[in-house]
Amino acid sequence: MFPITNSPQSPQTLKTLEIARANNWWFRVGGNAPLVEEPVFINNWWIGPPDKPLPPAVTKRVETIRKEVPIQGVVVLHETSHLLPAPEVERKPVVIPWKKIGLVALGVAVAPVLASAAVVTLFMVGTVMALGGLALLDPVWYVVLEDGTWIEVYSDVD
After folding, report:
1. Is residue 105 over pLDDT 70?
2. Among 50, 67, 109, 127, which is most exposed with the fewest C-beta within 10 angstroms?
3. Cα separations in angstroms, 23 against 17, 26, 27, 56, 108
């Protein structure tokens, strides 16, 4: 469907990496594949042409490369969620002998549960806020050279 092969680096690839070094940019060679002209979903990534104007930092890099190396186009990759649906579990009803326990025992039993739920909720909120910064890893921008080499030219990790 979408063959990606690694091949020896072409003169175009070496020139592009030389441009990156000269500008103190970090580029990564991604392999060889055809230019994607329609969005495609592969291994938790949406890959396709940009759906909105390129950010200024990406534009600067693409135009700098284009001055010296012929390119086919630009491709953007968006990582999708790794969350899977929860497995189906058969739940058995729990029978609680309310008359034997009494309200005092019920309060003693519920208090630790509520405290635990509060701690877990705070932990989850903190985790979500901390991991929210990781969303900045998306998207990743690639230039596809004339020879089919994909070179990562920008991500928010730079």
Report:
1. no
2. 67
3. 10, 9, 11, 15, 66
Edge-to-edge, what's the strand order for the sheet holding 45-48? 28-32, 149-155, 140-145, 71-79, 45-48, 40-42
Joined together, the tokens standing for residue 106 give 């019920």
**DSSP run (H or E) holding 84:** none
- CA dist., res. 107 & res. 102, Å (int): 9
Q: Report strand pairing: 71-79 vs 140-145.
A: antiparallel
Three-state secondary-structure class, residue 154: strand
The pLDDT score that the predictor gives to residue 95 is 73
Cα Rg, the chain, nearest whole Å? 26
DSSP run (H or E) holding 79: strand 71-79
Cβ atoms within 10 A of the Cβ of 142, count? 26
| Whether this model's pTM surpasses 0.70 | no
Q: Is the peptide bond before 139 cis (omega within 30 degrees of 0)?
A: yes
Taking a C-beta distance cutoff of 8 angstroms, is the pair 104, 111 a contact? no
Phi, psi angle pair for 90, to nearest 5°: -75, 125
